[in-house]
Design a protein that fits this description.
about 210 residues, alpha/beta, 3-stranded antiparallel beta sheet, 10 strands
Length: about 210
């Protein structure tokens, strides 16, 4: 596990961006999309600086600190059609407050032995589900992370709006992180939707995307 908690806070705070003045019109971005956007903007600024030949200090690209944790207890998936799914994991996200161990990722996601039956469709009842399965399980002052895996780099979703509103990541010790869906989530979700038998041993996992323990 390699991370810097300060950078994580910045990423968490950048997950949501209002696109218009209407509070209901909110666009969410994955951390990967934010990283790629920052890199593109940096290259433009660098080119402009070098074209001017000002002799000053070149703009600096703030490094992206990769995290080798992809899941927490509460994990949501938003697919390409904006349907919302949930899966629970016993192992929670572990935050580390330190200034050492900069990550040299990207890392493959850990293999969590996810099964189709463990993925729950909560598209139409996310508020009720959030209260009964998430909020009621959180203890006072408990550090809690929610991960949202998206099949799109950016999305708008009234259901995710409700998740933010009810979970309230502005409250102390509550955080929401948007990332791209992992290879395992994508494959298992596909089997859940199709209803076909799922056997992970027959899957040709990409070692760059999924860390299979041998």
């Amino acid at each position: 596990m390699k991370k810097i908690i300060f950078i994580l806070f910045v990423i968490l705070g950048s997950c949501k961006e209002a696109k218009h003045t209407d509070e209901k019109d909110v666009t969410y971005y994955t951390t990967e999309a934010i990283q790629e956007k920052n890199e593109r903007e940096y290259l433009v600024k660098l080119k402009e600086f070098r074209d001017k030949d000002s002799g000053g200090i070149e703009p600096v690209l703030i490094p992206y600190f990769y995290d080798d944790q992809f899941y927490s207890n509460h994990n949501f998936i938003i697919d390409s059609l904006n349907n919302i799914y949930y899966h629970y994991r016993l192992e929670s996200y572990i935050s580390v407050i330190c200034a050492t161990g900069l990550a040299e990722g990207p890392f493959p996601a850990p293999y969590i032995q996810l099964q189709p039956e463990r993925i729950i469709d909560v598209t139409d009842n996310i508020e009720t589900f959030l209260k009964s399965r998430v909020m009621d399980s959180i203890k006072n002052e408990e550090e809690t992370y929610i991960f949202i895996g998206s099949q799109k780099d950016s999305f708008q979703s009234p259901a995710i709006d409700k998740l933010f509103l009810n979970f309230n990541p502005d409250y102390r010790n509550r955080f929401i992180l948007c990332r791209r869906t992992t290879e395992e989530e994508n494959i298992v979700l596909q089997y859940k939707k199709s209803g076909e038998p799922y056997n992970p041993d027959t899957i040709k996992w990409n070692p760059d995307l999924t860390a299979i323990q041998k």
